[in-house]
Amino acid sequence: xxxxxxxxxHFLDPCAVRRVPLTRPLVTGTLPPFLAAGAFFDxxxxxxxxxxxxxxxxxKTLLAALPMLLAGCGTGPDWRTLRPVSDFGRLxxxxxxxxxxxxxxxxxxxxxxxxxxxLRYRSRRDESGxxxxxxxxxxxxxxxxxxxxxxxxxxxxPTVRTVFVMQGPPPGGDPxxxxxxxxxxxxxxxxxxxxxxxxxxxxxxxxxxxxLTLTSADxxxxxxxxxxxxxRDLNPGSENRLWFTPTEVGQYHGQCAxxxxxxxxxxxxxxxxxxxxxxxxxxxxxxxPAAPDSAGAMTFLxxxxxxxxxxxxxxxxxKVGPNLTNVGRRTSLAASLIPNTPEHLAGWLxxxxxxxxxxxxxxLNLDEQRIHxxxxxxxxxx
Length: 382
Ligand code: CUA
Hints:
Helix content is 38%, strand content 19%.
């Protein structure tokens, strides 16, 4: 039996015609309006295989892009790069702010010209055949070369000026010097003027310029606290600088922004911008940490923890892992991955690798009694 076929036309290009095997019933008679509409759109949407393939790719791309677009609307107050809380962050966002308005103006002009051309030169009823062709139009070609060049030049002026300010020395005198050292996968913060070291939670006083010296103990990391501004690389064997003056008291999240190994995504930090009284109290506590109880300190020593960690005021002086002086005061553990609670700390001591994959902290096979003792000891360091 001969197979029945139907003619399909491309709805954008009526000349593109092909005959395809009939796979759906021929529409005969009168259809209810909603079915007729369905059949019409069905035909519109599947006139040719290539077109339907393109449509499917388009739909999939749209679906894939949607979460990324929505992520930009994040409600977390910590991640809004466009609402900076430092002079450094403001410099960058001001340039972006200006450029958005400029490019919006350019967009409007281009779209108006396009609309004018579409309407003015549209095909008329009494016209047939191809329109008269134009080859070469020197004035127009010069214009569309010079105008974009001029736009780029004017965009470069504020951009280059801002880059020089951001890369330059910190404004004003007497910045607070802090050294940041990146490790797989945590942050070390040294306060040379104040004489102490901490990890993963950076405290700075509001209104005072901070001058960070950034370097790395192993591979390349990148310091990024979106609301403070950034990013800046931490390179092993050399030093980078980043200054900022925090303008708003608060707690801001940061994240390593350079792929640095298994737990790169887990290399987080928190920046606490404190009012001057809070900062002074924190710095005083860090400078003169509470004397740890000796039984707890002994457990810490004999469990093997002291080989890697320092606790001021105890014989524990390891330099490989984060400095744990006053660790009980921190809000988070494991580079800001988990909240600092006895339960989470116990879980971290039991199986570090399950909390932070690839963590260099070994599983010391601690029994429950020792974990209990260590948790009590560490949480008491405040
Ligand atoms: Cu450190 Cu990514």
